[in-house]
Amino acid sequence: MIRAILTVGIGSAVGGICRYWVGMIPALKSSSGFPYPTMVVNILGAALIGVAFAVFSKDADSSYLKLLIITGFLGGFTTFSSFSMDFIRLFQNGNTVEAFVYAVVTMIAGFAVTWLTYSLFK
Question: Which has the closest alpha carbon to 75: 1, 8, 27, 29?
Answer without folding.
Answer: 8
